[in-house]
Amino acid sequence: EQIEKGGYDHFMLKEIYEQPDAIKDTFRGRMLVEQGIIRMAGVDDHFEKFLQAPRIIIVACGTSWHAGLVAEYIFEEFTRIPVEVEYASEFRYRNPIIHKGDVVIAISQSGETADTMAAIKLAKGQGAFVFGVCNVVGSSISRETHAGAYTHAGPEIGVASTKAFTTQITVLTLMALKISKAKGILSKTALHRYLQEMELIPAKVEEALKSNEHIKAVAEEYKNASNFLYLGRGYNFPVALEGALKLKEISYIHAEGYPAAEMKHGPIALIDEQMPVAVIATRKGHYEKVVSNIQEIKSRKGKIIGIVTQGDTEVRGLADYVIEVPETLEALTPLLTTIPLQLLSYHIAVMLGKNVDQPRNLAKSVTVE
Ligand code: G6P
């Protein structure tokens, strides 16, 4: 097992560090950057279905559901197709409305999650076209769907999902960009710009990973907190949810993720000097609004951990700690902002002596209801 961990203390840490390569493996062969072309066999073979879809329904569980939420923002912005993101366990039992032309995208790292599988069968039975985004090749979900795209993240052993999440977002982003271009929404130049930037993401993830030692210090400071709040807006709202989930899963500290502006409708009541609040405040997208959310936290004495764009000064002036990520196009920021939150939960869990790779009560893949 030590050999399999490749010198890392835990699979989770190894998998966090594998993300630059995993993302590269995900887009390799699919992007012809100079020509501005995205090739994905599973999408190409059924392209009309995507172009004509009146609606996309995404079904998933856990971290994969969070990737689905990021995809909702990306698909709606770039393809203008309405998207619904559903917990597979809810979808399957609520007699959902599915029309013939609807495209259902099932996201699953393992490809074995029972609820997601049941949601697929239901959607197929009602005439939807079902597309799978899976990591495990040949898995049940990849076989049950009409078509799909693999994430090519390589085996993920740690129960808390890391590289599966960022590679799922990569696949879904490529799909949205491809459809957008074909619909005439994204110009050739704009697509080219996105592809160029996507190609730089692995190096930028690498750069984000360099904050590891600093993140350890942040973890040391807040490891004894009994609650954490995670806030983000827009593309980074789902990242806040995912950050909170990661902490809960492996450190057993209660954490909630919230859209930053929604804080005033509840979680703000919890904020005092004991409460660390991780706020994703990258320079793109609602930056000034997030800064004002940070001011609200500060005036209630909450402890602020800002996830910011390199070179940021405004949040730095307000936060107790800032963790920088490189600048990128707004729609791609989740691929970077996720990284420090993974490391933060990892270090807190290690410091608390928890079983990081096999947290209590959790399973890597949930094949029963
Ligand atoms: C379990 C795992 C999570 C995962 C979820 C969905 O809860 O512990 O890490 O996100 O299942 O799994 P899937 O394989 O369908 O993505």
Q: Note the gap between the termini.
A: 30 Å
H/E element sequence: HHEEHHEHEHEHEHEHHHEHEEHEEH
Poorly predicted ranges: none
**Which structural category fits the helices and strands?**
alpha/beta
Give a short account of the largest sheet.
5 strands, parallel
Number of strands: 12
Bound small-molecule species: 6-O-phosphono-alpha-D-glucopyranose
**Rg, please?**
20 Å
Apparent shape: globular
The tally of helices reads 14
Strand content: 15-25%
Can you lay out the helices and strands and say which pair or pack?
Layout: H1 11-17, H2 19-27, E1 31-32, E2 37-38, H3 41-44, H4 47-52, E3 56-60, H5 62-79, E4 83-87, H6 88-91, E5 103-108, H7 114-125, E6 129-134, H8 140-144, E7 147-150, H9 163-182, H10 188-209, H11 212-222, E8 227-232, H12 237-251, E9 254-259, E10 276-281, H13 287-299, E11 303-309, E12 321-325, H14 334-351
Parallel strand pairs: 3-4, 3-5, 5-6, 6-7, 8-9, 8-10, 10-11, 11-12
Antiparallel strand pairs: 1-2
Helix pairs in contact: 2-9, 2-10, 5-9, 5-12, 9-10, 10-14, 11-14, 12-14
The structure holds 6-O-phosphono-alpha-D-glucopyranose.
